């Protein structure tokens, strides 16, 4: 019932907020560099434009390439139903936090499989990097969830990130939030892990895997990536201040602030060398592990 009452606000968050966050990131980077930049809803316009086009498939690709975008978007949408946006999630049960992690992994797996199905050496290289770096990011996310599960006594996201999470010690919160922020940047291919604006195949990770996708397939991938960024942003905001996520207006402002913060990060530093990315992700694992140790104590 609580979810149905806030249905219009939930639809806004799911349909418009992901593109708005991406637009604010681009706008912030443009402002810092002294440019005007594209409109904030340019990502949404690009998705709508792609939906009106036709898809082109290579003769070397098979069913995995065509099914990948649909399955990846479906996995992210299913994960969205588990996240408590500013009220009760659509689906909630003890253990849905584990399902959330598996759904994100499923979306990544089918994207990697679709990239390998093209037979392209460049997309295979990007898929290899995505699989390697995710093997560092996933343990950090699991450790963050484990520390929250210990304090809440539940493996449900709605309980782990509820407003009653005030018993968490401040150091544990900061360590978990720091690790989750690094995972957020890595899982969404943001600087310093990856640069979503580059088109140099030798340095790309996520973008190189979707080079052969077009039309609605590419639109599904872009929207799924934007929605994934928003969902992880909601969890990060709820971890730092659950009270901000209890109100639709405050949550919207917080997500906009997070987008500006990410844009400021990308404007103040360059992309790390590939050999340095595992070190950053291992640092996230260490931060989350130290947070778990404090939670156990």
List keywords for this structure.
mainly alpha
Description:
This protein is mostly helical and 297 residues long. The chain has one domain. It is 67% helix and 0% strand. The chain has helices at residues 2-5, 7-15, 17-32, 42-51, 63-80, 96-117, 121-152, 157-160, 170-187, 215-240, 248-268, 277-296. Helix 5 packs antiparallel against helix 6 (96-117) and helix 9 packs antiparallel against helix 10. The radius of gyration is 19 Å and the shape is globular. The model has no long low-confidence stretch (mean pLDDT 88).
Compute the number of helices: 12
Largest sheet: none
Low-confidence stretches: none
Task: Indicate the percent of residues in helices.
Answer: 55-70%
* Average pLDDT figure: 88
Total beta-strand segments: 0
Cα shape? globular
Beta-strand content estimate: under 5%
Number of discrete domains? 1
Distance between the termini: 38 Å
Give the helices and strands as they follow along the chain.
HHHHHHHHHHHH
